[in-house]
Amino acid sequence: MSAMESMLKYLNSGREVTTRAARTMFKVQNVADVVYRLRNEGHVIYTNRVTTSRGEQTFAYRIGQPSQSYTRSMKSRHVARARRALYQEAITASA
What is the value of pTM for the model shown? Predict the structure, then answer.
């Protein structure tokens, strides 16, 4: 099983993973690239900034539910438009 498949299986189990943990667990250096490729395959992966117990800020990744605008854009193969919908929703949700 590839690192990308392993990470997807882990995320699909309902858990989230930080950048550092993903590097260790899945033996990848560029976690953002793995997430980028998974998103291009149509998986809805959210990125959240979290603070570790040591006080360091890092990113945590998790699977989420796609919105209608994201689903419509992906069905019509407009990946860039789908990503914009995801980012816009994330900005709106945090405001």
Answer: 0.70
Contacts of residue 59, defined as CB under 8 A and 6 or more positions apart, other chains included, come to 18, 19, 31, 32, 47, 48, 49, 50
Range(s) of the domain holding residue 30: 1-64
Q: Which two structure tokens, joined as six digits, stand for 11?
A: 């995320």
Report CA-CA distances (Å) from 30 to 33, 48, 95. 5, 17, 29
Say if residue 53 is in the same domain as residue 69.
Answer: no
CA distance 86 to 77: 15
Q: Are residues 77 and 48 in the same domain?
A: no
Within 10 A of 28 (CB to CB), how many other CB atoms are there?
Answer: 18
Q: What is the tens place of the pLDDT at every residue in 71-93? A: 777 777 777 777 677 666 554 55
